[in-house]
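Subject: design request, 169 residues
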């Protein structure tokens, strides 16, 4: 299903995340395109601080409250997403505490990839099928409002940023 504009910026975030996951997987597989372990970790942590963490914040503060109470599947997906986010935060903190444990980074990369695909293929698809046009419009406005405040000017969906989602208000 074509992604609704309310979810397009979150989907763009997922593309950034999946690029990080691919770098981690390449490192794990010894692919010639991989950067070394230090650079892969450094790039991932820079991504996490600039985009990953705030993406989770938006999903929890903006997306999930719009999903809950509409449909049992969306309620249960929301619980699963929250639990996985908490696990990601713990894993990133653990990796920061011991950056030499590259296997932990490999595991996290795989889990983040699964999470993004679950959100894209299951959560977002169900959201678009279940929410009314008015509810999707309200979600869209809330996402834009969040990004105007919480995203730097060069970030996806920020004012003056690279989003192609432009909503007249
Ligand atoms: Fe998420
Ligand atoms: Fe996400």
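Subject: RE: design request

Done. Sequence follows.
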């Amino acid at each position: 299903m074509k992604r609704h504009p309310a979810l397009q910026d979150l989907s763009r975030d997922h593309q950034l995340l999946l690029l990080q996951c691919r770098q981690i997987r390449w490192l794990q597989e010894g692919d010639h395109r991989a950067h070394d372990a230090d650079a892969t970790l450094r790039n991932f942590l820079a991504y996490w601080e600039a985009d990953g963490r705030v993406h989770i914040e938006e999903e929890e503060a903006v997306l999930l409250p719009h999903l809950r109470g509409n449909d049992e599947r969306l309620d249960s997906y929301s619980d699963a997403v929250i639990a996985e986010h908490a696990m990601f935060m713990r894993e990133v903190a653990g990796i920061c505490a011991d950056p030499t444990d590259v296997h932990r980074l490999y595991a996290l990369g795989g889990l983040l990839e699964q999470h993004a695909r679950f959100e894209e293929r299951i959560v977002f698809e169900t959201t678009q099928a279940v929410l009314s046009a008015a509810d999707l419009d309200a979600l869209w406005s809330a996402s834009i409002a969040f990004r105007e405040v919480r995203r730097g000017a060069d970030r996806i969906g920020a004012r003056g940023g690279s989003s192609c989602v432009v909503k007249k208000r």
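The pocket of fe (ii) ion (ligand 2) is lined by residues 10, 14, 55, 59, 116, 119 (CB under 6 Å).
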